[in-house]
Write a structure and sequence with these properties.
The structure is a single chain. This protein has 5 helices and no strands. The protein is elongated. The protein has 98 residues and is mainly α. α1 packs parallel to α4 and α3 packs antiparallel against α4.
Length: 98
């Protein structure tokens, strides 16, 4: 494999993994008051655009990696804007699957 592909693959893995600790913390603590909904809204739009770009270019690595980032960042955004009772319900369902 070429060094360029290795660097790109590592970048994709790091990008995808970067959202997991925050999502898991939200599930465990149900706390989102310090998370910026505006920032995550922009992040979600950015990842949606990257997915569209990847689809238009027929580049599955862009689609997959940015699709996973889109799902994780959209989850964080959703949990940030949900009322406390709904946030608790979502987190309860996800924690019961452990």
């Amino acid at each position: 494999m070429h060094a360029v592909n290795l660097i790109g693959g590592l970048a994709a893995i790091c990008s995808m993994a970067s959202f997991v600790p925050q999502a898991w913390k939200i599930i465990r603590t149900r706390e989102t008051h310090d998370i910026s909904a505006s920032m995550f809204s922009l992040t979600v739009v950015g990842f949606a655009c990257w997915c569209a770009y990847g689809a238009l270019q027929a580049e599955w690595p862009l689609i997959v990696s940015n699709g996973i980032c889109l799902i994780l960042s959209a989850f964080i955004l959703m949990m940030t804007v949900l009322p406390r009772s709904k946030k608790e319900a979502v987190a309860d369902v996800l924690q019961s699957r452990d």
